[in-house]
Amino acid sequence: MGDEANREEYIVQMKKIDKVYSNGVAANQGVDFNLKKGEIHALMGENGAGKSTLMKMLFGMEQPTSGEIVINGESTVLSSPSVAIAKGIGMVHQHFMLVPSLSVAENVVLGMVPKKGLFIDKEKAVEITRQNAEKYNLHVEPEMRVADIPVGMKQKVEILKALVRGARILILDEPTAVLTAQETEELFRELTALKKEGYTVVFISHKLNEIKEITDRITIMRNGRSMGVYETKDVSKEDISRLMVGRDVILNVQKDAAKPTDVVLKVRNLEYVNEWNKKMLDKVSFDVRKGEILGIAGVEGNGQKELIDMLFNLNVPDAGEATVNGKSVIGKPQAKIREMGVSLVPEDRMLYGIAAQASIEENVISDRCAKKELNKGPLFHMGAIHKLSEQLVKDYTVLCKSPAQQVGMLSGGNIQKVVVAREFSNDPSLILADQPTRGIDVGATEFIRKKLVELSRSGIAVLLVSADLAEVMELSDSLIVMHNGRIVAYFQDTGTLSDEEMGEYMLGLKEQTPEEIRRVCHD
Amino acid sequence: MTKKRQLIFSLVRGALAILIALLVAMLLIFISADGNSFGQRLSATAEAMKQLLVGPLFRINAQGIKFEGKRLADIFAAMIPTIFTGLSVCVMFAANQFNLGAEGGIMLGAFSSALVAIYVPLPKGLHALACILVGGAVTGVVMLIPALLKVKLNVSEMVCSLMLNYIIMYIIKYLMNTAYADKSKGQIQTYPFLNSSKIPALTQASIFTSSKLSWGIVIAALTVAAMGFFMYRSRWGYQIRMIGINQDFAKYSGMKVGFVIVLSQVLGGFLAGAGGGIEMLGRYPTFGWSALPGYGWTGITIAILAGNNPCFVPLAAFFLAYLGKGCDMMATYANVPTQLIAIVQGVIFLFFAAERFLSKYRQSLVVKTANEEIAAKMALAGGGGSLPQAGASGSQDSVKEGGKKDE
Amino acid sequence: MSNLLSNMLSPGFFFSIFRISAPILYATLAAIVVEKAGFANIGLEGLMMFSALFGSLASYYSQSWLVGFLVALLVGVGMSLLMGFFAFQLETDIILVGIAVNLMGSGGTLFLCKIITDITEGKAMASTTGLITSKLCIPNINIPVIRSIPFIGRVLSGHSLLTYTAFLMCILTSIMLYRTSLGLNIRAVGENANAAASVGVSVLKIKYIAIAFSGLMSGFGGAFMSMSYAQGWSQDMVAGRGFIALAAQAMGGGECLGGMFSSLLFGFAQALGIKFSSVGLDSNLASPIPYAITIISLAIFGFVRISRAKKPKVAA
């Protein structure tokens, strides 16, 4: 009887889903997730909570390690996106799957082109697009090139693509992240209309206002586990924030009180608008002093990446200034920035951090290969280089056969140790640590955290960006929170902060006064 | 994977590629062999293969086989230009620059050197040196064109260098026809080089008598050593290699990426040009090339076989020259056209460059190594340090997915 | 100089531009289609050499130009599929596959010519020029009405069948790319393979089709070279046309019409070179012009692209 009722009620049931990636990361652990017909269902959680993994499994892009997926009462194996599409599931990815030089109509019908004899029936393609656009109330220009249309319309094209292929369940991965306020409003109207037609929508987001506005139910995830399913009207924003944001483990990092002295990094009024006209940095100002760790907390995508890019000249701000010990770093070549004593542990270690096919030794000298002590005339001083790399491998406990081993062959944690060995050992006065422990094993994580504390206590300024709340709260001496490209809070002392409070700032429910925030500038 | 296993893998892979190429060659010879019966053709094929494999160094006749010094010297002589183009391509490919200008580069170098050899009288010894340096320098400067266009305007260095090859060839042909033509001769050529400029033959070593082998081979050997040091023992070569592996990493590390990319192509040009000069002065009395010589393309094969490592260039050059000589021998003694070399070379090239060729075997070696490592760690259990997060399949993956993000 | 000018204004000169451009145009179309599919085939030179050789041989042995022509196409397609196998299945860098095919195309064809025909004129020289009579060549076509128009008739009429098909192919390729679902898929795969795959387009299949198309065009080009442009195959007869095509593709902005004009430009420069020598000037002076133009125009394109990207963005 109960079973019978369930079958009626749920069109999708994901039961006890486990997903362990081949590199050993457990992205989902015993997750239950279900969808009712005709609802808008929010899937919430911080970055790395396992939302995307769960949805990729529902769309057939990944296979669960264990667990069952039931669609319309039938146990189903979704072996590929085509199978999922055939089952009526469509997904709109955060990075659009569109071909820019083709027209909107061509993108919509790609792979199922209407033909007139040998040729594409362009009128028919436009017709199909136009009809569906009207039917679903999604305004698009069928004959325009996708490259020339605004982001909001691109998203509609994506939704249309899914609907034209018969999707009854739509998964939208952070659909509003790239949209302006008006576009977001428009999207919500359209989604509501779809819902009335009996379509089911999964809405991934961390924006509380939006979630409250549009969704019926919420599944909240944290650290690969489901924190429960709630009726949206029954939970307050504060409840959601508390469920979403929180420490799962208390690290208990041992550290003495910081004794910060002179300002090393001074950032003033940095502004940046990205290529989609979205303001990523809005008058960002702060200081980092010798001997302290300043943490930047915040949900990913709120300007942290852009900020770090500006400080290392991987991008150029529209306005504002950043100086290290009084000298500007904006637009300076990386060699100059490094000469000023700036080190960067990059967020994407495979992209920037290492040359995978080169040896450990070659990776640890990349920033100092021209230094006198490593060269003898025109040639390298191999003795000095060997000594240096052996010392670093030992000091940073890099698990390897010898420094001649290829870096790409090491585990993630040991690769990161190679990166920090290089970045921490070049006598820096400022360390920028961007997600320094993401995706690496416990041992390496602990080691890197200890090193950061140790270095800051020896008089180095550390700027720590981390999406890991426990890390950023317990490692930092003081903390700023970023939301929507702005600093919304500054805490001089992290010791007294509660997770709930942090969550409210991170998700934009609360904001300090400008006077409170300005205290981070130690003029 | 351990170093030893890696070496075994490379050797097996290389040997298999060569074997496949030889099988293809054998098949082609068999098809074209004289004789009516299967047996006759087979023995003709065997005869030809013997010439191909043994002929480059030994004279084969009824009395048995006998070592021939001259043939070895010929092989060495053939290696001189290709070692230089091989080194040139190594330097450029190592920086991930697909500059195919070594072909035009060696011709330009040869021609520039020839002009100095004809028109600028200098004392013996110094003259040859000046010729070679001018040949290298002119080519290096010309390579600034693709290099700067790549760095400044992101123009494909490949198309640009291919076009340059033709421009160089036509301009040289024009100059040979007009300003620098020796009109007294029947064929198109320049005036003879001054004697002071010539690179003498290596006749001192008795086994090399009566061959065209010049001291150029010694210069080539020295250049190989120098380039080996440059690429693996100097900060410049190091930066070239790092840029070739991961340009973003190089930039982030503070390297001057644009400058190093230009450097690699200019140096590549210099090597090809200098090689052209050395070949010219050591082998010919006058400049008479009326078409691109083909050494640039051979240089690419050599660089691929050598894995862009200068130290392996002589080995690869020797191998190709040996095969070339073998094909010559087949042409002379077994009536098989000498151009078989092109097909053999192409097949070996393809299999060397094929990433997935024998990838299953490689994978099994990686897994074996990973399993052994884990067994070793188990034995040491609790020994501190940080263990890798994943088991056997994890380490396997981190190899396979190399550059991918590990989230 | 006036001699040269009057020579250039003759119908024969314009006639020769079309004739010379045809094989370049074929290769350019090949380059355009693979580029649209997202990769480069720099082995066109070698493919054309093989097609030229086997086309002329088949024509001789069958005593039929049609058989020869079809064999040329077959060889082009077959070899290009083999290239695809190495590039897509064995993950060999496609550039290196192209280089290997070119290596084999220059010396290997000579080897094959020798062992198949048993002609060994001296050490290097061997060709099929002695085998191919004009009867075995692709026929020339006189177009009824047009042939009788003064001047224009002598420019446009009387070309080889394959000269006309070259320009026809240019139109057909353009239609294929922009009017058929195959073309749509090719362009989608080249621009965003993930997007194409996400709607069920087989990326691998499309890539194979694209490279086979480049082989087909090389087959046309090769057949034209050995069975029309020249009577019979000889060593290195393609003489860089496969590389010029890569430049013509880039110069023409990757589109068929642009590629056609670039091919004609190259044809013009070569025809000019021939005229130069006919009036006693050195053709070697005219021959490098198209290559130089290519480098200059690539530089200009690059400059325009960079300065466009640097334009300040407008804040919202």
Write the SSE topology.
The complex is a heterotrimer of chains A (523), B (407) and C (316).
Chain A: H1 2-9, E1 10-20, E2 26-36, E3 40-44, H2 51-58, E4 66-71, E5 74-75, H3 81-86, E6 89-92, H4 104-109, E7 115-116, E8 119-120, H5 122-135, H6 151-164, E9 169-173, H7 181-196, E10 200-204, H8 208-214, E11 217-222, E12 225-231, H9 237-244, E13 263-273, E14 279-289, E15 293-297, H10 304-311, E16 319-324, E17 327-328, H11 334-339, E18 342-345, H12 349-353, H13 360-364, E19 375-376, E20 379-380, H14 382-395, H15 412-424, E21 430-434, H16 442-457, E22 461-465, H17 469-475, E23 478-483, E24 486-491, H18 499-506, H19 514-518
Parallel strand pairs in A: 3-10, 3-11, 6-9, 9-10, 15-22, 15-23, 18-21, 21-22
Antiparallel strand pairs in A: 1-2, 1-4, 4-5, 7-8, 11-12, 13-14, 13-16, 16-17, 19-20, 23-24
Chain B: H1 3-32, H2 38-54, E1 58-61, E2 64-67, H3 69-94, H4 102-119, H5 126-142, H6 144-153, H7 157-177, H8 216-233, H9 235-245, H10 247-252, H11 257-283, H12 295-305, H13 313-333, H14 340-353, H15 359-379, H16 392-400
Antiparallel strand pairs in B: 1-2
Helix pairs in contact in B: 1-2, 1-14, 2-13, 3-8, 3-9, 3-11, 3-12, 3-13, 4-5, 4-7, 4-11, 4-12, 5-11, 6-7, 6-11, 8-9, 9-11, 12-13, 13-14, 15-16
Chain C: H1 2-8, H2 11-36, H3 44-62, H4 65-89, H5 94-117, E1 140-141, H6 144-147, H7 152-156, E2 159-160, H8 161-179, H9 181-191, H10 193-198, H11 203-229, H12 241-251, H13 256-278, H14 283-286, H15 289-310
Antiparallel strand pairs in C: 1-2
Helix pairs in contact in C: 2-8, 2-9, 2-11, 2-12, 2-13, 3-4, 3-5, 3-11, 3-12, 4-5, 4-11, 8-9, 9-11, 12-13, 12-15
Please give a structural write-up.
With 523 residues, chain A is an alpha/beta fold. Chain A has 2 domains: 2-244, P-loop containing nucleotide triphosphate hydrolases (Rossmann fold, 3-Layer(aba) Sandwich), CATH 3.40.50; 263-518, Rossmann fold. Chain A contains 19 helices and 24 strands. Chain A has a 6-stranded mixed sheet with strand order 6-9-10-3-11-12, with helices on both faces. A 6-stranded mixed sheet of chain A has the order 18-21-22-15-23-24, sandwiched between helices. Chain A has a 4-stranded antiparallel sheet with strand order 2-1-4-5. Chain B has helices at residues 3-32, 38-54, 69-94, 102-119, 126-142, 144-153, 157-177, 216-233, 235-245, 247-252, 257-283, 295-305, 313-333, 340-353, 359-379, 392-400; strands at 58-61, 64-67. Residues 382-407 of chain B have low confidence and may be disordered. Chain B folds into 2 domains: 1-67 and 313-354, no CATH class; 71-308, no CATH class. Chain B has a two-stranded antiparallel sheet with strand order 1-2. Chain C is built from 15 helices and 2 strands. Chain C has helices at residues 2-8, 11-36, 44-62, 65-89, 94-117, 144-147, 152-156, 161-179, 181-191, 193-198, 203-229, 241-251, 256-278, 283-286, 289-310, and strands at residues 140-141, 159-160. Chain C has a domain at 22-238. The longest helix of chain C has 27 residues, at 203-229. Chain C has a two-stranded antiparallel sheet. In chain C, helix 2 runs antiparallel to helix 13 and helix 4 (65-89) runs antiparallel to helix 5 (94-117). Chains in contact: A-B, A-C, B-C. At the B-C interface, helix 1, helix 6, helix 7, helix 12 and helix 14 of B face helix 5, helix 12 and helix 15 of C.
